[in-house]
Amino acid sequence: MGFFDQLKSLFTSPSGDPNALVLYVKCKRCGAPLAVRVNLANDLSADYESGGFVLNKEMLDGKCFTLMRAEIRFDAARKIVERKIDKGEFITREEYATMTNAQMTNDK
Ligand SMILES: [Zn+2]
Questions:
Q1: 80: CB partners within 8 A, 6+ apart
Q2: Ligand 1 centre distance from Cα of residue 47 (Å)
Q3: Is the pTM above the cut of 0.90?
Q4: From the CA of 76, how far away is ligand 1's center (Å)?
């Protein structure tokens, strides 16, 4: 799987809304999965250096209260070109689904 295909599977837009983006991340400390919804129309800031956009998103893990900071860079067409996250890890939607299902089963 190529790099951009991987990115595509990491960032999927549900319900066909082109402005909706869901970030799936995992807390590095306790491993809890987190899904964060982003609105590309409102949440992006212009990056004048690259001519694209940048998104800075803070996500609080509700389990161990680790604050993760994601920084995602987009080109002018709002395609993701770079992403990094502090105190966490990006996961795919499939991984997120697997992890949340496993958690629900464990909690019973
Ligand atoms: Zn955590």
A1: 7, 11, 72, 73, 74
A2: 30
A3: no
A4: 33
